[in-house]
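HOLO CASE FILE
Compound: PRP
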Amino acid sequence: MSTPESRKQRLIEIILEKSFKYSEDPLFTLASGKKSAYYFNCKPTTLNPEGMNLIGGLLVDMLADAEVTAAGGLTLGADPLAAALAIISHQRGKPIKAFIVRKDVKGHGTKSALEGDVHAGERVVVLDDVITTGGSTITAIERVREAGLVVDRVIALIDREEGGRANIEALVPRVDAVLTRTEIMKFYSGKPSARP
Ligand SMILES: O=P(O)(O)OC[C@H]1O[C@H](OP(=O)(O)OP(=O)(O)O)[C@H](O)[C@@H]1O
Ligand SMILES: O=C(O)c1cc(=O)[nH]c(=O)[nH]1
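Model generated. Tokens follow.
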């Protein structure tokens, strides 16, 4: 039978196989403008059927005691996480709705910043696939609050452990990560010289 630890272990394997990239020349440019020799392109994991199923289950476990009605974050990284959580939470009998925070407020029609069946006063989780500086997550938190929702906590798939978590903790009481960079890199078998 699978345990949360064995499911996390399998998720790490998928991330290392599909999402971890290393390059010293050229370096990756990050959302914050920082440069890095490594990059987690999470989409091949978060859009993978097994990856989605594992992520949805792990998020449901992490939210077992949370009184929240919905989860979502800044598009695009958060979207597959929110969808996976919505489906698995429904299957487990405690549904958590998905929502999407637009990068740009829609210029016509509803002119909305948030998409989904969410309403002012609801208690929600803000998701992100990666936290580096926390800037993207903080943008999502601000938009969510502007819409009148209450942020219960933040959950990221991967915390790169570069200070972003502390930046978010200044705004939200609780910030969790499914995995940290350290937990993932323990299982990286690339050249030692290529370790971030
Ligand atoms: O903590 P930060 O310094 O903000 O960096 C992390 C953010 O960077 C990536 O988003 P990106 O801007 O690449 O957008 P995408 O998800 O639309 O690809 C990732 O999905 C996080 O949201
Ligand atoms: O900081 C970022 O922009 C970033 C880092 C990373 O590893 N993965 C990602 O999607 N974004």
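CASE NOTES: Helices lie at 4-18, 43-46, 49-62, 79-91, 135-146, 164-169, 181-185. The mean pLDDT is 95.
CLOSED: yes
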